[in-house]
Amino acid sequence: MSVLNRLEAICQSFVDRAGDIAVIVQSKTDPALFVAINANTPFPSASLVKVAIACAAFDAQDVDLTKTVPVDILDETFYCSILQAFEPGDQLALKSLIGLMLIVSDNPATSAILDAVGMDRVNQWLQTHGLTGTNISVGFDDASLGAPLRANLTTAEDCRSLLHQIDATQRFAVLKHMLRNNLRNERIPKLLPDEAKIAHKTGTLNGLMHDIALIESPDAAYYLIILADNLPDGHDFANDIARFSSEVYALMAD
Questions:
Q1: Chain-centre distance of CA 242, in angstroms?
Q2: What's the burial of 172, exposed, middle or buried (CB within 10 Å: 0-12/13-18/19+)?
Q3: Can you list the residues of the chain whose pLDDT is less than 70?
Q4: How many Å apart are CA 94 and CA 84, to the nearest integer?
Q5: DSSP assignments along 78-123, one per residue
Q6: What is residue 148's predicted lDDT score, i.e. its pLDDT?
Q7: pLDDT given for residue 164 in this prediction
């Protein structure tokens, strides 16, 4: 059985479980080694859209990413925030807030970037770059979290295209570096070898668990997109993702 046939089999087995699941695997060096299941099905994007927000901020020529923002004017939140490590008088550059948005998925940092760029410009960036299945209509303030955040949609194919554009575009190299330093590593990266460099972003809501990644190592280079919604209560889907990711890596490194 060929690598492609084996890859198709494990992807189909992963998708054939309770819940709504989309998967894409594509080799970076051999794009024809490609499996896509439910690739254009809309899913709530949750925090995945933060990657597009970062790209739009980098491309907004009138937004000075070196401009500093006082920590004490950022959105207050009921939830945990890395910004609690700073003093109220501390100043953070917009570029640093983008780092916090991607590396720890901080919501007040995201709101600050959205304020600087604007939702309309993020949506325009998405359309201009062919990500027509992705939108943002709700922000990341406390009132918008949970069910309201489901209004923001994306597809697995848009996520693959977004990561490809980041990888192929020199001005986004710093964003790829930030994504490689993601601190939420209990899904796609968990069981992969230490030498693998994994630029990835997670998204989480009740019943929803996403992870999108570009994996590069001496043995393999490929995109892995996993979107999942309507998952059963109490099931440890993060470990399912980790095990599936390990299976994919073994095949792609074969």
A1: 16
A2: buried
A3: none
A4: 17
A5: SS--GGGGS-TT-EEEHHHHHHHHHHS--HHHHHHHHHHH-HHHHH
A6: 94
A7: 98
* CA 74 – CA 76 distance, rounded (Å): 6
Looking at residue 132, its pLDDT comes to 97
How would you class 249 by CB atoms within 10 Å of its CB: exposed for 0-12, middle for 13-18, buried for 19 or more? buried
Token duo for residue 188: 């796609």
Distance between CA atoms of 154 and 130, rounded to whole angstroms?
Answer: 12
* Domains and their CATH numbers in the chain: 1-41+155-254 (3.40.710.10), 46-134 (no CATH)
pLDDT at residue number 30: 96
pLDDT reported for residue 18 = 93
Both tokens of residue 21? 């699941």
Question: Minimal CA–CA distance to 188: which of 152, 138, 219, 224?
Answer: 224
Between CA 232 and CA 184 the distance in angstroms is 22
DSSP state of 243: H
**Looking at residue 75, what is its pLDDT?**
87
How much is the pLDDT for 254?
86
Distance separating alpha carbons of residues 131 and 115, to the nearest angstrom: 22
Structure-token pair, residue 119: 């939702």
Pairing of the two strands 208-216 and 197-205: antiparallel
